[in-house]
Each structure stands twice: as structure tokens, then as C-alpha cells.
Amino acid sequence: MKKSTTSLTAVGILFLMSFSIQAQSNDWTGKWNTTFLGNNSWALNITKSGTSYTGTFPSGKLVGKYQNGNLTGTYTRTVNSFDRTGMGNMGEFTFIMHADKKSFEGEYKPEGKDWQADNWNGTRPVSKYGNLLEEQVAKKEITQRDQVLKEYANKDKPAPIKQWTGTWETDVMGKLKIHEKNIANVLGKYRFQVNNKFTNGDITGKVIENNRNKFEGHFKDSEGKSGLIKISYSNLIRATPGYDFTGVLIYDFTPEQKKMNIPLTKKVVSIKGHRVSSLEPNMVNYN
After folding, report:
1. Which of 25, 34, 133, 273 has the CB geometry, 3.0–4.6 Å to 66, for a possible disulfide?
2. What percent of the residues of the chain are helix, what percent strand, and what percent coil, each to the nearest 5?
3. Which of 184, 178, 175 is nearest to 165 (CA)?
4. Helices (H) and strands (E) in the chain, counts
5. For the segment 58-88, what is each residue's pLDDT rounded down to a tens digit?
């Protein structure tokens, strides 16, 4: 068990490390305002495909790779007779990200020359949508990471069992099958035998919302008997040992009883049930 736990921990750490590296490498993508030679300014747009980065700026293009938090690579330009940048047709560059992730300091080396004293620096554009978009992207990545971690943590956990769904053996209704679709829609089927004669019945009811240990519904069997069923888990007060639920059946008056012109009391029968399966039962038949 210890070895298994250690393995899972190692996998989780590796996942977080890979996610962190991925998030850092994504810091370079997007739009930047870059400056060099004091007051010259270029808009630079960087995109990522696999492990390669491509940037476009006026009359130029750069190709780079992510390395130790920095972006390094080469650039190419289309130079005209009015060009005074000194960058030439091609060269090398290195961009170093600042801690705020919103600016970088860069250097460039034209082909055949040394690294230049002037820097090629960049900042994120402050626009109506720029910072908000960055925040939304960051939140989305964090949400995706948390969802992956949650799914990984729960991958070996069994699906939650609905409290009343399952098959029960009862002392009054015989075999009782219950399917809890939700707390407001619970179906039941039961079958018992008396003197070699089988009686089938159906139940419709609900779980009591403020106390999920209780279930109430109406039953009606193939003999025409109907009424109210009230049952609760046996961990409640006055529970009967050896059974998973206890309760009562309150029978409706029969048509003959309703015709009687005298006060009557409804028949009340106690019921006890023991769960034999927590699997969702077959509700097509009564068997």
C-alpha cells in the first residue's frame, strides 16, 4: 500500500511539474510592444506550435525556442534603403522574461557582428482587453489543472451509492426493489407469496429532503390493497437489530369499509427490511 501511495504521489508531482513548465512556456505567446535604439517601436506577435515559437514584426520574422525560461532564436528582416536600425537582414536574439511576466529584456546580434549594446525590450500592451484576456487565460488553465487533478484523485473511487437504491428482503412485502432516480422520484416493486399465491405491487414515493434516512410513498398491489409506506434506516432511535430499515404500512380503507356508516381506524402493520444488494435493480419485472 505504501509503495502504491508513493507511486501515485510521484505521478502527481510529475504532472504538476509538467503543467508548471507548460504554463511558463505559454508566458511568451501573445502581443508585445518592443523598443530598441531608444525610441524605435515595433509590435511583436508571438505564437507557439509544439515546441517552436514564431514571431512577426514589421518587415520581419523570428523563430525561437523556450530554454530555462528564456526565448532564444534567430530573426530575419526585409531591409530597405531607409533602414537605420543596424539589425541587418538576419541575426540572433535572446529574450529574458521579467518576474512580472508582463515585460522582457532582450539582446540581438546581427549576422557578422557582435551582440549590440542596445537592448531589444518588450512589454505587454495595456489595452481595454489585454490584461483581462491574460487573466481569463490564466484562470482557465488553473481550472483545467484542478479538474484533471480532481479526476485523477477520484479515478479509483467507486461511484456513490444512492441511499435507497437496491434490493431488500422484508418481512411483509417479500422481495422489495427500490430505484431512487432522485430524492423526489423513487420507484419500488415488491412480490410476496401466501399459500402458493404470488402478489405483486408497486410503490411511488420520495426521500424526505431534510432527512435522507426516511422514505415515504404509496403502494398498491395486484389484490387491490393500497396505502402509505413510511420507512427509515435502522440507525434511528428504536431501531430493530438485524434489519436495515423499519417502518409501517398504513392501509387505505377498502371499498366495503368506505360504505360502512361507522367510524373506522386504518389498519397499520409494521415492516422491517434487510438490504441484500446495493446495485440498481431490474425494474422491468417483479422477480
Report:
1. 25
2. 20, 45, 35
3. 178
4. 3, 16
5. 889 999 999 888 999 999 999 887 777 788 8
